[in-house]
Design brief:
Blueprint (H helix, E strand, L loop, with lengths): L14 E3 L6 E3 L1 E6 L15 H17 L3 H6 L2 E2 L2 E8 L8 E11 L3 E9 L4 E10 L2 E2 L11 H7 L4
Antiparallel strand pairs: 1-2, 3-6, 4-9, 5-8, 6-7, 7-8
């Protein structure tokens, strides 16, 4: 029998107040179980899988903000990830459960998403990180000096 990844987002806040700015943040959330195939020989999650958890939370965040990547593509833009960072704070192991939260950190010339990954079994922060995306012309792959207007409109409530 194949193990199933959780897809629910119960108990987890979808918006929160930024303590530094006092602004409301829309939060993307992804819950998950650590599966055996995500771990190394010691039963610890392989570092590359943290980016998969980030991706799931970012996808939820984009949906909540109304960001439609297909629409952006049809408008002539691509939004590739050009930078990632991850700080590993506490290992996650086979059998652990967790969730990843994502929120927009910056969104003017580039889109920066910040992440926090929590191990719910140990109630610790397992990792923090960020991704950076830029807008490119999908035909010529030329870098756009600003984000597309349709994307900026989606980001207005959180910037």
């Amino acid at each position: 029998m194949t193990e199933q990844r959780k897809s629910t987002t119960r108990r987890l806040p979808k918006i929160r107040l930024d303590k530094n700015t006092g602004r409301v943040q829309v939060v993307g959330v992804a819950e998950f179980d650590v599966l055996l195939n995500e771990t190394d020989a010691l039963g610890i999650v392989w570092h590359g899988h943290y980016l998969r958890y980030f991706e799931a939370a970012r996808t939820d965040l984009e949906r909540r903000l109304g960001i439609d990547l297909v629409k952006l593509y049809n408008e002539g833009f691509a939004l590739p990830v050009v930078g990632t960072s991850c700080r590993f704070l506490s290992p996650m192991r086979y059998g652990d459960t967790g969730f990843c939260r994502a929120h927009v950190a910056k969104g003017h010339r580039r889109l920066e998403i910040a992440y926090e990954l929590q191990n719910t079994k140990t109630d610790t922060i397992a990792a923090t990180g960020a991704t950076i995306q830029v807008a490119m012309n999908r035909e010529t792959f030329e870098l756009c000096m600003d984000l597309p207007e349709s994307l900026k409109r989606c980001l207005e409530p959180v910037l």
